[in-house]
């Protein structure tokens, strides 16, 4: 049984056009947000506020995205975030965290 599990996780997954589209989308959104909003915020708030916010926000964003990606990538099923969280924590927590995640995206 353990040999089957190890061989399942060692299989290479193909990098398809769909995956390439997601990579481009994520990079484009990050570049677009930085290009448009960062100079405006620096001009409005000042450089020291921007530097302080970057020092606080970068590690927080990295930790949250790291947890999010590990949760999705280490699950056995290929479902969306709400289904995977519901599998780990139960239906109520899945709904609650799904709504919170949706509100953070908006």
UniProtKB/TrEMBL annotation:
It is found in: Cell inner membrane. Keywords: Cell inner membrane, Cell membrane, Membrane, Transmembrane, Transmembrane helix, Transport. It is a multi-pass membrane protein. This is Transporter. The keyword Disulfide bond does not apply. It holds the Pfam family Trp_Tyr_perm. The chain crosses the membrane at residues 20-40, 47-64, 84-104. One of its GO terms (biological process) is amino acid transmembrane transport. GO terms for cellular component: plasma membrane.
């Amino acid at each position: 049984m353990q040999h089957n599990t190890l061989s399942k996780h060692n299989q290479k997954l193909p990098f398809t056009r769909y995956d390439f589209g997601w990579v481009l989308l994520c990079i484009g959104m990050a570049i677009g947000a930085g290009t448009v909003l960062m100079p405006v915020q620096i001009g409005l708030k000042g450089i020291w506020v921007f530097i302080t916010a970057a020092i606080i926000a970068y590690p927080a964003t990295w930790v949250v995205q790291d947890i999010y990606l590990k949760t999705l990538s280490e699950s056995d099923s290929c479902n969306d975030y709400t289904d995977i969280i519901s599998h780990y924590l139960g239906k109520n927590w899945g709904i609650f965290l799904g709504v919170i995640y949706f509100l953070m995206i908006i």
